[in-house]
Amino acid sequence: MDEVSKAPVEGALESIDQIELEEWYDSLEDVLHRYGPEKTQQLLVHLRERAYHRGVMMPFSATTPYKNTIPVSDQPRYPGNIDIERRIKSFIRWNAMAMVVRANKKTEKHGAVGGHISTFASSATLYEVAYNHFFHGRSADHTGDMVYFQGHASPGMYSRAFLEGRLTESHLENFRQEVPRGTGLSSYPHPWLMEDFWQFPTVSMGLGPICSIYHARFLRYMQNRGLLDTSKSKVWAFLGDGEIDEPESLGAITLASRENLDNLVWVVNCNLQRLDGPVRGNGKIIQELEGAFRGAGWNCIKVIWGSEWDPLFERDYNGKLVKRMGEIVDGQYQKYSVSEGDYIRNHFFGTDPELMELVDHLSDETLEKMRRGGHDPEKVYAAYKAATDHKGAPTVILAKTIKGYGLGEAGEGRNVAHNTKKMNLEELKQFRQRFSIPIAEDLVEKMPFYKPEEGSEEMAYLRARRDQLGGHIPSRKVTSERLDVPSLDDKLFARQLRGTEGKGEASTTSAFGAIIQGLMRHKSIGDRIVPIIPDEARTFGMESMFSSFGIYSSKGQLYEPVDRINGSLIYYKEAKDGQVLEEGINEAGAMSSFVAAGTAYSNLGMNMIPFYIYYSMFGFQRVGDLIWLAADSRVKGFLVGGTSGRTTLNGEGLQHEDGHSQLIATTVPPLVAYDPAYAYELSTIIQDGLKRMYADGEEIFYYLSVYNESYDQPAMPEGDHVIKGILKGMYKFKSTDSGEGQQHRPQLFGSGTILNEVVRAQQILKEKYGIGCDVWSVTSYSELCRDSMDAERWNLLHPTETPKKSFLMEQLAGNHGPYIAASDNVRLVPDQLRQWIPGKYTVLGTDGFGRSETRTVLRRHFEIDAECTTYATLQALAEYGSFDKQKLPGILKDLGIDADKVNPRTA
Questions:
Q1: Interatomic CA distance for residues 304 and 301, integer angstroms
Q2: Between 587-598 and 620-632, two packed helices, what is the crossing angle to 10 degrees?
Q3: For residues 860 and 868, is the Cβ–Cβ distance under 8 A?
Q4: What is the DSSP letter of 712?
Q5: Which residues pair with 613 in a beta bridge?
Q6: Cα separation values, 775 from 732, 806, 821, 822, Å
Q7: Measuring CA to CA, which residue among 271, 299, 277, 457 is closest to residue 387?
Q8: Can you tell me the distance from the alpha carbon of 67 to that of 303, in angstroms, rounded to the nearest whole number?
Q9: Quick check: bond before 818 cis, omega within 30?
Q10: 743-789, pLDDT tens digit by residue?
């Protein structure tokens, strides 16, 4: 046995006789020698369990010593040419830095555009090793790796794409200068702005991590359903250690291990620094994360120390070096990264004569240059190889780096803002010298972009590696596939057009359930439908989907469901090829699944059609950032806000009653939002949405409000104007004759379930007050508003040409009102149209907190019921001089409206 094995760990088991302790060590070494690490591990586990049964409680520790997980003896040979790769990496470093600094110098006069040079500087090795040996592009026989790049490292990806010939010098010159479109480069990964380049938006911290988990799971979903062979694809996510503090970052890591997602690799760039200082100044972020991930069932690989440390570990006979490494907190490690060698020698090693002896042969300069593991390509490669070979669990690689590595005084390891973007001439010269950039010294100040000559060794190597790995990454490739979308005459839609009058009542939620199940059974697109439900299928009356189509489970169903009683055909059925994604109480996860499915057309080359139905209150309000990410991702699909409305979901109260999702939906540019009242409207909208997205190829997505209130569903009125009006945003639904001598004809707008209250108001106005009016079903205030804004803008910029008329203006032409809109949403939803309404416009809405009550009471509380709509109409007519204002106090009493009740906005 060698001296390392025989040496006792300092301070360990002091109460046990040293000779006896040596015998235990000898036994361990013998087992290890004869049976190997795996059997030794099994023995130790067995001994631990035996001790437990004998009443010995073992202390729990989810962390390992503060050293590399992969020992030198297990480190594979590096397969590439490290020297060439280092030169390529240095060129990329230079261009990434020059791009940011030049852009800010260029725009300084008008307000510098900003940017980041420190993040990529710390992670260049992490990316380059992956680019040269692991990232696989999408090809004929490979669905490609999905890479979630750390957003602040984007200059490095642009710089590499420049060397690859994908971007021009003009692109780099216009970093963060994107007007006119297509001339510059976006600040971060934004598919909306660079539709052929980026795949995944990642710079809203924490969203990349959770999306990567569900994307990896979606690849398995596609595989297990037999739709696409995704077995070769890996999902890589590059994160910052500070980003891990976002709740979404770690919020779903147990799903990854539960689903055995060994196609998922996270690389956490542990440069120990966030915006304002150390991530864990008084702690150790790598150890903290190791404990979290190992406890969650992940394979955890630490890459802490570079190769220069290996001889010291080999001579660390008594474990004092590793012990000292475990004692130092991150704030002090950050101090070492900017300190001179004598400080490191005295402060780190000087606490023990034996530690000082370890480094007495090393110069101060050598101590300064001893690398962190994340800057050593051999250590990084070993970690990546182990991660991609690992089976049965996801892998996280915790790579220790120095923020701003190579930037010197401009930001290496310093507590400076993460968007450091300036370097002086001396710093530029030091950077050039450190990384051997072949630029003449007199040109350094101009920071020219550098690209090796065509045919050079570096360019040949760069292209050969990417060609062997299937092509460029990132690269967004949209499929040309077009789906055969069923027409509105198809029975799955047609049955909703006939209505339910005389056959009972139904809600728009139940109509949606019938439509989606009809789509799932449809021969042309049924297998492309991806229903996503967060533990609310029974609430929405959609539980029959479970047994009919199965709930996706990578393990199938290992139990007999409790609700399968007496041969029941409706029960909770899990299946490996199940179609329904039942996500549990997890809106963020469900939204991540929606994005994975809704971007399959560009990431996997195959159209998938996600329908995500959820409690509407827990959509935009709860996961609005993910919805914005979905828009940036150019997602396709349908978001369906179930149990919508401030007054329609009676009994649930303040935290559940949604009256503002339609308003927030207007803020998302590619989102088309509708608030249909009837099943035929919903059916028409869904069919047209399918056509626009999957037959015509539009990169848009939808938000639909559906309600749980049941009422008679009318048949679709006749006339070509109806379908056009539904899709454009409004159509005339019902009219009553004007009364004798009636001077003004009110126009009443209604949407969602409140359209029924508006129709009832129309009846009251006619029967009690002899006033005829028109009722309009407004299916989308936001679409009407957008169309009106487009027409107004065109007219503004083309003053000498014939003005365009918006659809709203065409519909209301010749009507002078008054106009009254009633909605189960806040007033700002219908108020979007105010500037284009050709008359007095009164808006009734549900501003204020919701509360528990019956629908009737709630609608009176918010003053949106038929009686309040009637009164608002009469009051507007009085202002027109068409109704006696003196009668209004009596009408309030007649309609049962309390003029002195609490204001619902502040109630």
A1: 10
A2: 20
A3: yes
A4: -
A5: 640
A6: 6, 20, 10, 11
A7: 299
A8: 7
A9: yes
A10: 999 999 999 999 999 999 999 999 999 999 999 999 999 999 999 99
- 3-state DSSP call for residue 185? strand
What totals of helices (H) and strands (E) does the chain contain, helices first?
Answer: 35, 18
- Name the DSSP letter for residue 129: H
* Residue 161 contacts residue 497 (beta carbons within 8 Å): no
* Side-by-side strand order, sheet with 774-778: 730-735, 774-778, 747-750, 819-822, 841-844
- Core vs surface per residue 89-119: b (16+ CB within 10 A) or e: bbbbbbbbbbbbbbbbeebeeeeebebbbbb
Q: What percent of the chain has pLDDT over 90?
A: 83
Q: How far apart are CA 233 and CA 219, in angstroms?
A: 8
Say if residues 716 and 722 touch (Cβ distance below 8 Å).
Answer: yes
* 3-class DSSP assignment, residue 705: strand
Contact predicate 176/161, CB 8 Å: no
Q: Which of 843, 729, 702 has the alpha carbon at shortest distance from 785?
A: 729
As a whole number of angstroms, the distance between CA 574 and CA 456 comes to 57
Report whether the peptide linkage leading into residue 474 is cis, meaning its omega lies within 30 degrees of zero: yes
> Measured between alpha carbons, how far is 180 from 160 in angstroms, rounded to an integer?
24
Count of Cβ atoms closer than 10 Å to residue 74 Cβ: 11
- The answer to whether 306 touches 376, Cβ cutoff 8 Å, is yes
Contact (CB, 8 A) for 166 and 130? no
User: pLDDT tens digit string along 294-341?
Assistant: 999 999 999 999 999 999 999 998 899 999 999 999 999 999 999 999
**Spatial distance between the Cα atoms of 214 and 638, rounded to a whole number of angstroms:** 18
Which residue do the tokens 């005339």 mark? 732
- Separation of alpha carbons 151 and 170, rounded Å: 22
Q: How far apart are CA 562 and CA 897, in angstroms?
A: 51
Q: Which residues of 691-706 are buried (b: 16+ CB within 10 A; e: fewer)?
A: bbbbeebebbbbbbbb
Does residue 3 have a pLDDT over 90? Answer: no
Write the CA distances from 592 to 589, 595, 812, integer angstroms. Answer: 5, 5, 41
Which pLDDT belongs to residue 631? 98
Amino acid at 176: R
Nearest to 727 by CA among 785, 652, 674: 674
pLDDT, tens digit, for every residue of 417-461? 445 556 788 888 888 888 889 998 889 899 999 999 999 999 999
Residues 883 and 869: their CA atoms lie apart, in Å, by 15
3-state DSSP call for residue 423? coil
Q: Which residues contact 467 (CB under 8 A, 6 or more apart)?
A: none
DSSP codes, 217-261: HHHHHHHHTTS---TT--EEEEEETTGGGSHHHHTTHHHHHHTT-
Give the SS3 label for residue 24.
helix
Classified as helix, coil or strand, 63 is coil
> Which token pair is 721?
């104007």
Contact 700, 693 (CB under 8 A): yes
CA–CA dist 330, 588 (Å, integer) = 32
Comparing CA positions, the residue from 656, 536, 676, 530 lying closest to residue 595 is 530
Cα separations (Å) of 130 from 73, 112, 137, 163? Answer: 22, 33, 12, 16
3-state secondary structure of 303: strand
- Report the DSSP beta bridge partners of residue 734: 775
The string of pLDDT tens digits covering residues 538-586 is 889 898 999 999 999 999 999 999 888 777 778 899 999 999 999 999 9
Is 495 within 8 Å of 676 (Cβ atoms)?
no
pLDDT in tens, 641-695: 999 999 999 888 899 999 999 999 999 999 999 999 999 999 999 999 999 999 9
Half-sphere exposure of 41 (CA within 13 A, CB side): 3
Residue 687 CB burial class (10 angstroms; 0-12, 13-18, ≥19): buried
